[in-house]
Amino acid sequence: MLSFKEKDRPIVRKLLCAGCCVRCVLRFCCVGTCSAYRRSYEVSHDPENHLPTNKRLRIDEGSTEGSVTAAQTDSDICPVCLGVLQDFCEPTFAKQVSDAVKNQQYEFDSLVLTVSLPAQLSVREHSCWLHVKKEIREKSMCLGKEDVIQVKDAFKWAVQGKIGQELGAAVLSSCEVSVGFMHPETEEDCHFLANTCPDCFKPTKNKASIFTRMAVVKALEKISEEKFSRSVFSISETSYCRYNKFSRELPQTPWVIDGERRMDGSVEELIAAPLLSSFRADGFNFSSSGREDVDVRTLGNGRPFAVELLNPHRAKFNRTEIKQLQETINQSSDKIRVRDLQIVTREATSRMKEGEEEKTKTYSALIWTQKAIDSTDLEFLDLKIAQKTPLRVLHRRPLAVRPRLIHSMSSIYLDRHHFTLKLCTQAGTYIKEFVHGDFGRTKPNLCDLMKTNADILELDVESVDIDWPPAIPD
Amino acid sequence: MEDSEKKAPSVIDRYFTRWYRTDLKGKSCEDHCILQHSNRICVITLAESHPILQNGRKIKNINYQISDGCSRLKNKVSGKSKRGGQFLTEFAPLCRITCTDEQEYTIFSCIRGRLLEVNEAILNKPDLLLEKPSTEGYIAVILPKFEESKSVTEGLLTREQYEEVLTKRNQQEEPC
């Protein structure tokens, strides 16, 4: 029936257990005959459970009988070819391609099929080969990477003939029919290579992504097996938390202009340093639900943030160890403080970014007024304002007018020219510009409301009103 | 905290550097003040010595239509790089202001760069220009080219140099 030999048994078993499709199994057994790929393989459904089962294969040609069933997986899709060698090799797809060509009404009597595959298939192929290689070595056999049949070739063998038949053309070289495959969901598979082999990936103007097939293949050639296994099989760990910032001289992220450091330290670095060493990670990505200026403090429960640790050598921490980690960060500096430290999956980041757009924030500002005031001057109402992009960020933001809501304001009288203003505003409101007016480009502003020149001397973020991440009781 | 009428360092003092161009196009006392933000954006305003701000003059009309084909009001920028903004050179006119005594004055760009916006609030309320020429009465906002951020103020006077010019004028008793 099939062209497997006894020596292929362990490979076949291993690949089927991993959920590979028949044609990929054939490839890794170095089956080089077109007919093997051209024949149809259909998925049989288990009548009892109404779940698709993977194909049953029988090994014969002189070997002991037995059938090998693949493990049941949630999806039928082959993890190595991502389906390219499954449904896309069946007659229905060949007909689809032929119809598309016919619609264009080209005249030709011979064609050649070219295929373009997404870069991440190279990563999966490499991974599968290493997987199989281990098995082979144990049985003291030999399998060179070049011996494995390429997905591209298998696909062409499977489909070219059918397309040629449909279009009534011999398969030679005059007319090129190209089939391109893309799989955006797995595009990120390649990204870890940028960390391990950064010199392989140089941005060029013409390509949308630096992860071109050539670059990925080069990187796979350079990376050691050990490093590859570590990168692919260890998920990056993401820690969630909230931070407080008590300093008015600390930027959230490193402040560098033209390669020169403008201010020492940053919230990001102070938090990430202890995490990097405990998790023994190679690097990190810091993101937060909004951010504040260098000279603004973050008080109250703090601002939610996430640190993704890249290639952590250690990923399992129990509750006590995490508490300890939190303590270490808090002891390391009096400029910041973190709370509710916890490890979560990457999907949770979207919840945090929600806070940027949709949630409200509460502030406390120290205001100076030119005219002398008394406490009766400080009665405010619910307010709608329109802010043109502030001049201080206009160099890097588009010019636009932003309508914003000030949900509530209250004040604490200090002296004839000073008071504390507490406000609760819609996310995205520029508080400083609301106070001094930004050349009249925020309307109405506090100067208008109070009919005096006013300026903001200090600003604190009192709370970022998003009830996530969940609080961890002390 | 002190009970004081004195201003703490204002927004302008904190973020901007003041530059001046005097006697624009040879016209006596027609001085402009360019406020340059630390992020390189420049706000064009009338200097306190400009004739429009003297002797209780009132403004009759402000016109941003500087020629048949060009109105500064039609200026539209889009995106972060502010595409579409009219590119100005030092002597590009921004607007023409006519006072009630029929005197006409042209306000100029003074620097090279892309026009981001002109102040439309002064069209409705010209008094803003008279009462708050350095803040709400600004004329225009211009973004110099990144490569020219430092060189754009070459040829402009610093605050000290401007004050020297004023002192010399007072000594010569030039009417404005």
TrEMBL record, chain A:
State the encoding gene. LOC107703834
Please give the Pfam families that the UniProt record associates with this protein: Pus10_C, Pus10_N_euk
**Which stretches make up the Pus10-like C-terminal domain?**
242-465
Record InterPro entries: PsdUridine_synth_cat_dom_sf, Pus10-like, Pus10-like_C, Pus10_N_euk
- Listed GO molecular functions? RNA binding; tRNA pseudouridine(55) synthase activity
Q: Where is the Pus10 N-terminal eukaryotes domain?
A: 78-231
- Species of origin reads Sinocyclocheilus anshuiensis
Describe the family membership recorded for this protein in Swiss-Prot or TrEMBL: Belongs to the pseudouridine synthase Pus10 family.
Any one GO BP annotation for this protein = tRNA pseudouridine synthesis
Q: What is this protein called?
A: tRNA pseudouridine(55) synthase
Keyword Nucleotidyltransferase annotated: no
Entry EC number(s): 5.4.99.25
Which keywords has UniProt assigned to this entry? Answer: Isomerase, tRNA processing
TrEMBL record, chain B:
- Which keywords appear in this protein's UniProt record, sorted alphabetically? Cell projection, Nucleus
| Pfam families hit by this protein | GCV_H
Keyword Nucleotide-binding applies: no
Where it sits in the cell: the answer is: Cell projection, Dendrite; Cell projection, Growth cone; Cell projection, Lamellipodium; Nucleus speckle
**One term under GO cellular component:** lamellipodium
Which Gene3D superfamilies does the record match to this protein?
A: 2.40.50.100
Q: Which SUPFAM superfamilies match?
A: Single hybrid motif (SSF51230)
Name the predominant localization.
other
Q: Which residues form a coiled coil?
A: none
List GO BP terms, alphabetically: dendrite morphogenesis; regulation of actin filament polymerization; regulation of filopodium assembly
**So what family is this one in?**
Belongs to the ABITRAM family.
- Stated name of the protein: Protein Abitram
From the UniProt record, report the name of the gene that encodes this protein.
abitram
